[in-house]
Amino acid sequence: MNERPGYKPCEIGFLPEDWPIELLGDKAIRVGSGLTPTGGSRVYKDHGRPFVRSQNVGWGTLLLGDLAYIDDATHATFPDTEIRVDDVLLNITGASIGRCAVADARLEGGNVNQHVCIIRVERGLRPRFLNFFLLSDPGQRQIDNFQAGGNRQGLNFSQVRSIRVPVPGESEQRAIEGALSDMDELLGGLDQLIAKKRNLKQAAMQQLLSGQIRLPGFTGKWEIKRLGDVSDCDPESLAGDTAPHFAFNYIALEDVDQGSLRSHSQQVFGSAPSRARRKLRNGDVLVSTVRPNLRSHLLFQGDEHTWVCSTGFCVVRCRAGISHPGYVFFQMFGDAVSNLDCRLDQPRSSSKQFLHHGLLEGASLVAANFQGGDLGVHVGSACWHAVRTAGTNSSATLPTPTRWPRSWRPLQTVEVARCSSALPTMVLFRASMLLPCVV
Pick from 100, 137, 302, 323: CA 20 to 30 A from residue 406's CA? Predict the structure, then answer.
């Protein structure tokens, strides 16, 4: 390789001769992560101090759509990792390792769990310049090299401090930040355009998937079928006695984003994550049962390799001649399915609940009437109900159902929460997915 005049070779590539290389630990005044509070998600609040988890840190952006909150008492148990504006947040474990973003005023005073490392820098290194470098190829290569030969994805604080960073003068750092931020703004504008087009597509999906608009040449009647009657749930899994050297491509929950397969990893059974069990075939529909409101579903397009996905997905395999994978996949993004996905306090459902729970008698009528301010919901540890009531802050007697799913407790009364305009978007029943099908 020919050297450019004025540049020098170093551990992270060719750099200008006047750019010193520093260890991150020598430029940082804090490197550390928090913890998951005792009680886990049960201690999360609707408001309070922001609590940042790995899913909230993207590739240079903050993903705050499902941001959790903790109260002051919980925060006080690990105050050393309180977030300040301009802290660099770096994911240090799991499939999202290496993603990082800069904290802004929305996160000030918050905290992080053990999967997110706070890097607070001074002494001539600007936070946003550091963030851009960590996202660059030289930064990501160093993070990847720490994982070479390891069975578990994770960075410790010593490794974070040992990352080598170029440190030009602050004025040049500021100029580089400006140029890259301008590009981010351009990309942001494109993202907004894509989001607008996606909304148009969503509207078209709702009209087509519900039969409000019929395509030319189709006039037959539609009927409603249970998803479990037209497809098979989790039909194949790796056995516990699978050979340790058995190799496969693995799709984790973090690899799927609203219909797109962003990445995957190569695994062998002996060292693969314990959730790597669901075997896949071409045309399988992967439905996320962990935080399903994020719509991390995928129509799998396979190849000649062996593919396996996390047990966090329900694998739906359509029955030939009865249901079509593409149609079922698009139904997962429809309003009827999304309303079932909007959990009030349970971040996960199971494949069995997803496919095989029966609807209560009259459920369709209740759902159709779920528009005013006189409907109540009771959230229990194993059941969800919605009933028509006389008003808010009152009780109502449940009608006797003809059939209870096994996991539901037959409560006789429900407490009615104070209803608001947001309530109609909440889930009504943990029940089977009902799909319109052409007779």
Answer: 323
